[in-house]
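Standup, Tuesday
Yesterday: got the pipeline producing C-alpha cells again.
Today: sanity-check two examples.
Blockers: none.

Example 1:
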Amino acid sequence: MDQHQIVAQILERLHRDREAIAAAWNTPVGTETRHFYIDNLLPQLVVDTAYAAFPRDGSGFFSRESFREKKRTSAHITEYAPILGNITFAMQDPSIVSLLSEIVDFDQIEPDPALYAGGLSMMFKGDFLNPHIDNSHDAKRDRYRRLNLLYYVAPDWKLENGGNFELWNEDRSTPVTVVSAQNRLLVMETHKSSWHSVSPVVTDRPRCCISNYYFSQVSPDRSDYFHVTSFDGRPEEPIKKMVSVVDNTLRNTVSRTLRIGRGKGEINIDKRTP
C-alpha cells in the first residue's frame, strides 16, 4: 500500500466516523484533555508489515533513559522499510491535516516533516513515560504544538501488557487509560495542562508506535507562552514529584536562556514531504 492509498484509506475513515469523532472529542470523560481514537484504521496486512519493519531490538534508535522516562525513538524514517515512511507522511498529507483541523475546530494547523519529537518509538519491558506535558513549540519555536497523532502497530496488545497510553485528570490523581491496541490511531490536543503518560511495559514484546505532531502559530489559549517537556511523578511517587518540580524549573530556565531544545538533533533529515 503506497502513501496515496494510505491517505485515501484514512480520509475514508475520518469522513465515515466524523460525527462519532466530534462527539468523543467534545465530551472527554475522566480528563479535560480532548481526544479520540479510531480502531482498525488500515488493512491488517499494512499494519503487520509496519510492525515487522521495526527492528526487534531497537537497534539504531536513540535511547532516552532517566527518572522521567525510558524509551527509544528515531526520526530517521528512510533507514527503515518504506511502509513506515508511507504511514508517517500520509498522516501529514494536506487533505488529512485539513479535515482533522476542521473536525476538531483548530486554526492554521500544520504538520512537521522534520518530525521534531515525532517519528518512530519503541518501548521494551520496564520502559515507561511518566506524566508530562509536551514541549510547547516546534524546534524553531515559532509554532505551538497543538495535536498529537499516535498510531500503534504492535500486535495483540492488551491492557495487561502495560505500555498503555494515559490521560490524567486535573490534579493528576487518576488516569484514563487507552490501550495501545494494534491499528489504533489516537489523537489528542496539546496545551499547558494536557498531562499524559505511558504505563510501564510488563510484557517481553516491544510496544511500537508511529507519531506525528501538528503545530500552529495560534496558541491553544491565544496567549504567548513557552515551556519545555515538563514531567511529574505518579501519585505513588512523591519523591519523583518533588524532584520533577526542580528539574522542570532548571530545564525551562536553561532552555529559555541558551535556546537548548530537547531532541533538536534527533530530527528527520529526509527531504521527503507529505
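Example 2:
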Amino acid sequence: MPDTSQPIVVVPDDIGGAFRSAPNIERIRAIASLEIHGARPAGEAELGERIRDATAVLSFRPAFTRFPKPVLDRAPGLKLVCISGTGVEDVDVAHASARGIAVANVPGPSNRAVAEHCLALLFAVARAVPAQDRAIRRGEWKAIQGIELGGKTLGIVGVSGISCELAPLARGLGMKVISWSRNNEPARAAAIGAEAVGFDQLLAAADIVSLHVRLNDATRNLIGTDELARMKRGAILINTARGGVVDEAALIAALKGGRIAGAGLDVFAQEPLPADHPFLAMENVVMTPVSAWSTVDASARMINQSIENVVGFLRGAPVNVVNSGVLST
C-alpha cells in the first residue's frame, strides 16, 4: 500500500529505466512516495489503475502514453501530470484544467538534437547515403550523384525553438535561410538569421523545405498536393514535426512523379509505419523512427527538468505549467 502521509508520485511508463536510473530521482523520493513502473501500460485500464492513487504523474513522453478524460478520472487525487517533452497533445488539457489538474511539460530539451537530426536527414537525402550503403551491401558498386548544400536555400516552415537552432547550422554550411510562420514577424525571423517571406514564396524559392509547426486543425495536411506542386522541382522535404502536417498520399505521388527529389522523415501519419507502406520501397525517402529528439544529451536534460518540474510543484513553486490558470484556483 502507498504511504498516504506523503504525496504519491507515479511514473507509469519508465521505458528503458530512464527515471529509475536518474541520480536526481532521489529529489522526489525525499519529499514523496515514488512508484515507478518499468513497462508501458497495455491500455487505458491498466494506466488508470497505475495512477489511481497518484498526486502527481511523471510520464516518459517518448513512450506515447496518453491521458484522455477516462484515464484522468481514474485518479481522484491527481494534481499534476508532467510530460517529459514539449508536446502535451496526448493529455486532455481541457478536462485536466476543469478538474484543477496542472499539466507541465519540458520545453526545448531536444531542440539542438532535432535540429542536428534535420541536417542528418538532409545530408542523407542530398547525397543518397542510405541508398548507396544498401547497394554496396548487395554487392553493387555504383555511385549516385548528389547535390551540395552550400549555396542552396533552406525554407523553414514555423519559427520554433528547433528552427532557432537549425538556422545557424544551415548558415554555417553556406545556405541562405528563409522562413514562414503564422505571425511571420520579420524581426523574429531576423533574430535567427532568416528572412521572413510568404508561404507560397517560400515553397517556390526553397531547395529544402523543413517543417517545424505543431499539429492542429490549421496545420493538418499543411503540405498537400497544391503545396508540393508549388515547390521547386527537385526540392527536398524534411519533416521532424508531426506526420499529420503532410498529406502522405500527395507526398508519395510527388516523389514517384519526380516533382520533388526526396524526403527525410522522422514522423508519420501512422506510427509505427505499416509493413506495406509505400515509403518502404522508395529509395528517395530516408526514414527514422521518431528518434530526432533522442540523444544522450537531450535525454539527460529532459529527465532532469521533468524531475525538477515535479519537485517544484510539490514544494509550491510550480514551473513549466501549460495551463497556468489552474494554479490560481
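Quick observation on example 2: DSSP finds twelve helices and twelve strands in the chain. The mean pLDDT is 94.
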